[in-house]
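ok so for the tutorial part 2 we go from a plain amino acid sequence to predicted structure tokens. step 1 is just haveing the sequence, like this:
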Amino acid sequence: MISNDFKDDFFIEWNDLHHFLSTPEDPDNSVIDRQFPSPSSSDTVKLPQSFTADHLEQIAGIQIRWTDNLAHHLLLRDDDTTLMLYHHVFALLHHEWYGKILPKGLAKETMRTISLLLPPTRGKPNPWFLEEQKRHHLDPEAGMCEWLNNSERQIDTFHYWRDRLVLLKRTYDEAEPNNLARLWYDDRRKTQWFTFWVAVLVFFMTVFFGVIQSVASIIQAWAAVKSLKAYNDR
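step 2 — the prediction. this is what the tokens look like for a chain of 234 residues:
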């Protein structure tokens, strides 16, 4: 009979974890390494502060689908209309502090991508994420990652997730709003956004004052006819 009376400080140590996760055909490349390869593209994109999960939904119509699988993080699916987003920041913190399974720096970089898409607001959790967290029972730590400054937002600072970020940003940039709500939120090209809405405002003001002028003319004509009739009845 095997006893299960373990001590509180009992743990299993894998002294040769990399070898354990490798294959005979490729002993120098572990299963984990193959899941998170080096970037294959040197393309560059800008990652502005407006590049967030809520804008992906509101402007580009890209729906966020939460995943428990780190390998699916930042994957675009369903003809680039769905983005998979990993949310277990507490697990990433554990890997960053104590783990030996994930490649060095992967956990920290993943948290940076989460902060990129779910930036905190004035030191408080991302408000859009708070609603998602309540609805889907997500890790609350995902809305509390550190704010990224401009230098930390450069695409060259990302290694493992660079290719997926480049593809996501290009998909976002190429998406065109297809309704008024998305047009209102779409301030990616601020000059065009301002010009469009000024034109809309001018159009409605023209219609509004045109209607007022027409109504005033009708009232004026009616008053003239009534006055003429009263004069003829004398």
